[in-house]
Amino acid sequence: MKRTPILVFLALSIHLGLHAQRIHGRVIDDSTNAGLEQASVIISGTSKGTTTAPDGVFSILSPTDGKKHSLIISHAGYTDEKIPITDTTTAFVIHLKRSVSSLDDVVVIGYQTVKRRDVMASVSSISNTDVKDIPTNSAEEALAGRLAGVQVTGSEGAPNAQVQIRVRGGGSITQNNAPLYVVDGVQLDNALQFLSLQDIASIDVLKDAAATSIYGARGSNGVVIITTKGGHNTGGRTTVTYNGYAGAGVLAKELPLQGPYDYMYYQYERAQQTGDTTGIAPYGGFNWQTVQNYKNVPFYDWQKKVIGRTAFMDNHNVNISGGTDKTQYYLSVTDQDQQGVMLLSDYHRKILYFRFDQQAAENLKIGANVRFNNTLSDGAGTSNAGSSSLNFLRNIIRYRPFLAAGQSDNSLDEAYTTETNANSLSLVNPVLLNQQQYAHNNQNILD
Question: Does the structure show a pLDDT above 80 at 218?
Answer without folding.
Answer: no
